Each structure stands twice: as structure tokens, then as C-alpha cells.
Amino acid sequence: MRMPLSAIIGLVLTGAFLFVGLFAQFIAPYPIDSAVGGVWEGPSAAYWLGTDTIGRDIVSRLIYGAQVTIFVALASSILAFSLGSFLGFFAAVRGGWIDQTLSRIVDLVMAIPSLIVALVMLSVLPLNLTVLILVMGVLDSTRVFRLSRAVAMDITVMDYVEAAKLRGEKQGWIIFREILPNALSPLVAEFGLRFIFAVLFISTLSFLGLGIQPPLTDWGGMVKENKDGLIYGKAAALMPAMAIAALAISVNLVADWILSRTSSLKGGRGG
Amino acid sequence: MHPVLKLVVQRVALGLLLLLAVSAVIFLGVEALPGDTAQAILGQQATPEALANLREQMGLDQPALTRYFQWLGGVVQGDLGTALTNKADIAQSIGQRLGNTLFLAGCAAAISVPLAILLGLIAARYAGRWPDKLISGVTLTTISLPEFVAAYFVIFLLTQVFPIFQPVAMVFPGMSFWAKLHAVALPVIVLVLVVLAHMMRMTRAAILNVMQSAYIETAELKGLTPMQVVWRHAFPNAIAPVVSVVMLNLAYLVVGVVVVEVVFGYNALGQYLVDHVTKRDVPVVQAVGLIFAAVYIFLNMAADVIAIVANPRLRHPK
Amino acid sequence: MADTLLSFNNLKIEATAYPPGEPPRHVVLVDGVSVSVEKGKVLGLIGESGAGKSTIGLSAMSFGRGGVRLTGGEIVLNGRDIRTASAGALRDLRGREVTYVAQSAAASFNPAKKLMEQVIETSVAHGVMTKAEAEARAVSLFRQLSLPNPETIGNRYPHQVSGGQLQRVMTAMALCPKPDLVIFDEPTTALDVTTQIDVLAAIKRAIHETGVAALYITHDLAVVAQVADDILVLRHGKKVEYGSTDQIINAPKEAYTQALVSVRSIDHAEKPQAAPVLSVQNVTARYKGTSFDVLKNVTVDVAPGQTLAIVGESGSGKSTLARAITGLLPPASGRITFAGRTLSADLAGRTKDDLRELQMIYQMADVAMNPRQTVGTIIGRPLEFYFGLKGAEKEKRIQELLDQIEMGKGYADRYPAELSGGQKQRVCIARALAAKPKLIICDEVTSALDPLVADGILKLLLDLQARENVAYLFITHDLATVKAIADKIAVMFKGQVVRYGQKTDVLTPPFDDYTDLLLSSVPEMKLGWLEDVLTTRKMESAGN
């Protein structure tokens, strides 16, 4: 089986971001929060990407920012995923009023844009990591719910599931042996998309000043800190902006590849 | 009743019901979350007596449901309450700002809709060939950008590298239409970029879906010219899905506009909302949140209604 | 020849396939086919799926679907080679000299436009006649094709008329511009058998009366025998045999053609009546939330080691009966006894032995097997589940079952996607056999297969029945299959059993009207059958 170049690039970059995030403490050349140079210095041998609005090394802050951004995005997408896919499968297999109730609640939440719901919620909730992860995870779980319910519904009407029911198999076997293996690849691709969404979401919230609070930093917050420099031709704000774009694009490339393989995976091991 | 009318009435009723449910979620949901409005106003040092006084004054000692219906009654009559922070009438503060937001979103829609349809047509016409790959590649990139990131790239490019525009978008009453247009040019460009990608991709998919139908092959096998095939056979069937796509993406614009207003310091509804979230001014947030939700629900409803009306099977029942 | 309309000379057609996740693959669809059609004659193109018959048909308009390319040879239409003709020249000939009737008229009509507008479009666009003339001609064609309300049917939208009618409207659309040649691409395949016969008769009459030449593409030799003057038999994109219809049907030379002609002629003597293993008594059933009985007072039974065939068209309730017996749709009233015990109405109330002894095989083997499980797992699961077999013992039994379905070693590790259609159905049979059942419900198990493959499956089923003494409840719409396999027959119509008994009794006159219609509608492999039937049958089909 051959892997397209775009998928390889995506995988390598995604891996690199994860690595940097995981080992930020060991990689970053300077501490996260100390002013080591002048304000908005240009790139130099000491500060590869220059310094920020109060003279901190941008590369180091990007590396620490990667840690926070990826951690929050990963945690909330894992939450969204576990919650959404569990309830989605549950609704599909059980049907009846359970399905109806869950689906109507999800319809209701999805009737309003996530950002607006998040803003409304954050106007009363305290701003800390746990709250952010919970709010983002719960809001995004609605999308996972819809997808996994639809995928599971498609599979439950298949004759092989009926055959298993007629054989007398228990619910556990039907969910884990008949449905799940066939639902896996669209769900894996969806996880990638949910992760990107979470990265964009947390970055946007931080940019609006409603996400990660100092002394911690993430990429969205870094854009906010340095945005005023742009008017004076200081490109510092573009560095975290590019990091967000690069992470989102690389995960997108991987998800695209998985999605395109979904149909061939359906037929066994593939060629 | 004609089935189309029946379905449309059903869909509109559903939209209204949804809006009612959303208003309940916005009001009661916020009530249910941990957090104390009185505390938020008076701060951590407030004495219990002062807190109790304020609660009574604001009616916070009454049951949540009672206050919800009072609030809803006010909203229906155009009374959105007063802001906690400056005691200003919320409806009044919103008026002018809503106009500014609609102006900005309207400009973005006026450019992005025809452009997205045109690009979608081109991409679908050359599906799999280089114009399609180019358009798809570029849009895949812009889809991966959050609004504010796209905004700063555009700002840097168009105010620094090529200094064509001002980085701040100020509009005020009494400004001429043209001056306003010039002022919102940059935020409009950003919004267009952000909405265009989704809209164009979905338009392309909708058109391709129609072009792959068996009846298009029938038309080709009739020896019709490509123009006749598109105009007589593809267009009448593509119009409903495309309009639907456009509506859905205009709803998406609602979110984009909030962030873009903040980026450009554009004095409108989104900026107003974010400001008051920061200040924890709950009544303002609830009122503005409800307005955004209403616009979003309305656009989604419109998309469905158009799809229903345009369906020949429903329009001409058996 | 002066009167040759169309000739293919050494035609070669290729395509590039793009399997997802794999490098593109080059395939030859048609290789070195030469044949010609004379003015006013009908050439039948016959073959199984993948034979390249539709591809050749479309190439008569120099059209390739998707990535299909006409890469070699000549396609001579009215004296000129059209294979390499310009786009403009092709537009000129498509819809004027050659027209097309597709298998699925329902998908081939633009849903947003009235039928008349679409029927006359070609005639007007090519300047063959004025709008008024074209409309007049369309109405007369509608009448010729025995469509109801020929004057006004053109004002309707495609979804407002039935499938059989739509197929005839499409024929009118093809004939309207007075073409030299019409391509019929499986025009009756998607229709119920009693509707098929009317459409077939209408097409035949219209061809005859307009004097047009035609390419008639089908997988059903009995159908093509009714309309074609000559027949070309194709297999894997190559010519197998070409000759007059009479010669192909009555004296086929090639072994493959002989097999196609003798298909469905399995001789099965009915077994004597015996005490039943399954007995369905007065079963009435309806779907949840509806007030309409899909099964009305159905009473049938099956003897051990015998086959009861349930015959009917779509909507007759035959598959619903299977759901009622398996417990998926608990009957509203009535009783089902099996192997001497009364079965619980719903699935949850049945014992493991009830479930084991009553197995099911489905129409679409593709979706009846979990694509993520190997053949070994699929067959092994019932062994493990019902008999607790494990390890070597299980492997041995799996191999025995694979041998029984005539699939050798090495298949246990394969996934369903790596099997052919016939092999997939065999694996499903093995899975059912693994449970050592007393009865297997076979729901249209051969309908999705090519005739020769279907024949193989039927022979296998008969063979297994003789060896294992298993009873079959065989659901089908195809009477030829019934004759080949049944001991008893129940004919179903609108949820009721209208005729029931031993095979010979059911198939011997006098018939009730519906059974007569159903029996007489099944195309027979003989010339002139269509004419005979139309003059003798009693009831009009539902499609009219």
C-alpha cells in the first residue's frame, strides 16, 4: 500500500508538533516568562524568531504554547469523543425514547453556533483549564454524537448484524465485534477533524482573552499579545498564527488520507 | 393543504420552537452554572448584607423560572433589560451596533456568495483537473485557518507589505456610504476569505452531485450542447442545493463576524458581546447571544424551506 | 453490404480504474469485437456482468462512461467511422441517428421537467421537426406503447408515473426523433416480471412499427430471444458466438452459449408429502405504527428435508413472512410451530436451540457478512457459539464446511471482499450449515447473481439438502428457480397466499388469475413465446 506525499508530510509534521509539545521543558532555549531581550527584536542567532511585546524569546514561547494548545485541544477532543461516540452508539443501538431524547438535546445545542454558546457559558464560569476543556469537550461532543450515531445506524441495518441477532448474540458482541470494527475508520478521521476544531476553538477563545490565562500561554494568546506590533511592521504575531495554521493543515492532511482510505478499508485488508 | 405549504409551515413552527428552547437554555442554563451575578458585580470583598440587598433589588431572590418568563416577556416586547456594568438600556446599545454588524456581514455576503458559486462552478467543471486542484488546495488551506489568524495575515499583507488599507475599521453615524465601504474593506476581505472556502467546497459538491446524475448522461446522449445540458438539465436541479449551501454558510458568517469585529476594533454587536463576556455582564451576554442564535436559526430554517420549495417531487405531488 | 447501418470492426475499449487507496489500474473492457447491424434489424447483445455489453452499446454513440476510452478499431455508422469523430459531429449524431434507452428510466429523467418537454427535446434541438409535430408524434408513440392517457401523460413529472410506464416513455423519447438505431440497455431488468412482459411487448411492437434498428442489451437470453433477429454472445469483453436468434437458442455451438441456454433447467422431482418441521398457522402481521396488515392469515408448512418455495412480486409480503418466522417481526396473531414446539413470537423469547435450528441466508451476500471478519471467523462463530468448538477441532470443522461448499483450502483466511459474488453466497451457506439447522430460510439468495453462478448455487443447495436432510423455505420472485428447487409452492399476492400445494399441483391448470399471470410472464427460452402469451393470458399486469 502506498502513502501519498501529502499524508507523509502531514504525519511527520503532526508528529513533530506532538514531540515538541511533549518535551517543551527540555527543548525550549529560554524560560517561558522572562524578558531576555528588547521589545520586538528581529530574528537573530540568539532569538531565532525574535522577541515579543515585552522582550521574551518567541521560539521558547511557541514551544511552551504548543504544549498548552495541544494539551487542551487533545483533552477536549478526547472528552468530546468518548462522550459523543458512547452516547451516539448507545442511541443507535437502543433506539426508541433514549435515541429521541438524546437526539433532540443535541439538535438544541447545535442550533446555536458553538462559539456563541461558549461565550455565554464563559460569562459566568471561572476561567481555568478544567472549565475550558469541559466547555469545549461537551459542546463538540454533539458533532461526534451525530456522526457516530449515523455510522452506527448505517451498520445496524446491515444483514450481518441481523444475522448476529438471529444467532442469539448478546448486545456486547454486536457492538464490539460487529459494529465497532466497521465504524472505526470514519471515527478515526473524525477524531482528527475534532482535534483541529479544538485547536482553532481554544486559539480563538484565547485570542478573545477568554481562554488560557497568564502566566500560561498558548498560540492564540500569543497572537493577542503581539497583534499591535503588526501596525509597526513587527511580524511577531504572525509566528504563532503560522503555527496554528501549520498544525491544523498537517492534521487535516492526515485526516483526509484516512477518510479517502475508508472505502477501501471497508473491504478487508485492502491491496 | 398543499404538501409544500404544510412542510414549510411545519419547518417554520419547528424553527420558532427551537428559538424558544434556545432562549430557555441561554437564560436557565446560565442560571444553573456555578457563578453569582451579585458577587460578580460587587466583587469578592462584598459583605453578605450588601449581596442580599443587591439580590433583592435585582429580583434574584425569585425562582429562576419566574424570572425567565419575565425576561422572555420583555424580550418579546423589545425590552432586553439593562446592563449590569453601566446600567445602560441594552436594546438601545444594540440598535446601532446591530446595524453595523449587518452592514459588515452584508458586504461580505454580497461578495462571497457570487464568488463562491463562480469558483464552485469552475471547480466542478474542471473536476480533477488543475483549476479544481488549485482552487481546492487553496480553500483547504483557508479552511484550516481560524478567522483571527487569517485576519492578521491579511492585515500584514495589505497594510505593511502592500500598504493599501488602514488596519482599523471605524464607522460612525453620519459617515457616507462610500466612506463606510472603504472603512470595512479589510474586515470584509477577511470574512470573504473565511466563508468562501466552505461555501465554494459545498457548492462544488452540490454541482458535481447533480452533474453525475443519470439524467445528465441522458441529456449528453441526446446530443445537446454543453450549455444546453447545464442550462436545461443541471441548473434547475442544482439551484436548490446550492441556495441551501449558501444559507448554511451565511449562518457560519455569524461566528466569523464576532471575531473579525474584535480584530479590527469594529464597533458592532460581536465586539459588544465579547466585551461584556469579559466584564461578566450576564444580561447583555444573554441578550446578544439570543440575537446571534436567532439569526443562525433563521438562516438554517431558510435553507430548509428553500430546499422544500424547490423539490419537484413535493411541488407536484402524485 | 448496402444495407449495413452500423458495424464494429475489431473494436477495442479500455479504461483506467481507480480503486481507493491503490495505484490506478489499466483494464481492457472490450477486445477485438466485430459485428454489424443491418437497417431495421435488432441485434441482441448478451452476456453476464462484466461482459462489456453496455460498453459496446454506448460505443455505438461513440460514448464512454466515466474514464472509458474507445482505443481501437472502427465504429462505422451510416458509412463513416465515428470513433474518432469531433465533439460537434458526435452531438449531431447523438439523439438524431442513434438514441438510448437506459435500464433505470426513473434516474434517467430530469426530475424537474415535465415528461413531454423531455420526450420532444431531441427532435426540436436537432431541428428534425417542429415542436407541434414532435408533440403530435410523441402522443402517437405513447399510444403505440399502450401508455394510459396518451394525450395527457406528457404533462406529468417523472415521479408521477410508475416504473413500467416510465420505461415506455423513455422508449418513446428514443423513438421520437426518428432515429436509425436505438440502444436498449437492459430496459426491463429493474421491473417486476409481470410488468416486464408488457414493456417488452410494447418495445417489440414499437420497433416493428417504426422500422428502426436496435441494439438490445440484456443478461437474460430468454428476453432477448423474443426481440432480436441476431444475437452476439459476449464474455469478458470478447465475442463468444454470433448467429441468428434461432441458431443461438436452438443450436448453440459454443459450450458457454450452451450453458447459458440450458441454465435454469435443473430437473427436480418433487418429494412426497410428510409431517411438517415448520408450520405457520394463520399468521397475520403488521409493521409497528401502521394499521395495514402486510401478512394476512398466512398458513403454510414445510416437511423435513424438503423445500417450500414462496413466490411473489415486490410487495407481496414474502420477505415479511421470513421476518415473522425468524422472530424479527412478531406476528399480531397466529402460531408458528417448529420441530414440535411452539416458537415464541419475538426473538428474545426463543431458546438457543430454536435459533440454531432455524438459519437464514440473505439475498445480498455482500452485506450479510461482516467485512472485517475472515471467512474462518464468519463460519467459525456459529461453531463456537452453539457447540463450543475451539482450536483444532473448530479449524477441522471449518475446513469440512468449506469442502462442502466446494471451496478449497486457503479460503479461511480471506476477507469477504476478496471473494467473487458466488463464493460469498457459498460462505453464507456454510455459515448457516455450521449450526446444523433443521430449516434454512433462503431469501432471494440467487437474485443478485449471474445466471450460471445462480445455477451453481441452486445445485449446491439441492446437493446439501440430500446429504444433510435440511428443509428450505425458499423465497423468490423467479419462477424458473422455483421449478428447479421446490417440493411445495405458495404463491403470495398482497400479503395473502393465493395458491398453495405440492409443486405439480400448483403448476398445473386450472390456475387462479394471478398465478396464471405470474406463470405466463416468466420469459421462456423459445422463439415466439411472447406472442403466444399475450394472446392467451387472463389478467392484465398491475403496471397498467
From TrEMBL, chain A:
The chain crosses the membrane at residues 62-91, 111-139, 195-216, 236-259. Gene3D superfamilies: MetI-like. Keywords: Cell membrane, Membrane, Transmembrane, Transmembrane helix, Transport. It is a multi-pass membrane protein. The keyword rRNA-binding does not apply. The keyword Transmembrane applies. PROSITE patterns: ABC_TM1. Residues 66-255 form the ABC transmembrane type-1 domain. It is found in: Cell membrane. Pfam families: BPD_transp_1. One of its GO terms (cellular component) is plasma membrane. One of its GO terms (biological process) is transmembrane transport. Its main location: membrane. Belongs to the binding-protein-dependent transport system permease family. This is ABC transporter permease. It comes from Tabrizicola oligotrophica.
TrEMBL record, chain B:
This is ABC transporter permease. Gene3D superfamilies: MetI-like. It is a multi-pass membrane protein. Keywords: Cell membrane, Membrane, Transmembrane, Transmembrane helix, Transport. Belongs to the binding-protein-dependent transport system permease family. GO terms for biological process: transmembrane transport. One of its GO terms (cellular component) is plasma membrane. It is found in: Cell membrane. It holds the Pfam family BPD_transp_1. It comes from Tabrizicola oligotrophica. It comes from the Bacteria. Residues 98-303 form the ABC transmembrane type-1 domain. The chain crosses the membrane at residues 12-30, 102-124, 145-165, 177-197, 238-264, 284-310. The lineage of its organism: Bacteria, Pseudomonadati, Pseudomonadota, Alphaproteobacteria, Rhodobacterales. Its main location: membrane.
Automatic annotation (TrEMBL), chain C:
Residues 11-261, 278-519 form the ABC transporter domain. The keyword Transport applies. It is a peripheral membrane protein. The keyword ATP-binding applies. Keywords: ATP-binding, Nucleotide-binding, Transport. Gene3D superfamilies: P-loop containing nucleotide triphosphate hydrolases (3.40.50.300). One of its GO terms (biological process) is peptide transport. It is found in: Cell inner membrane. Coiled coil: none annotated. GO terms for cellular component: plasma membrane. One of its GO terms (molecular function) is ATP hydrolysis activity. Belongs to the ABC transporter superfamily. This is ABC transporter ATP-binding protein. It comes from Tabrizicola oligotrophica.
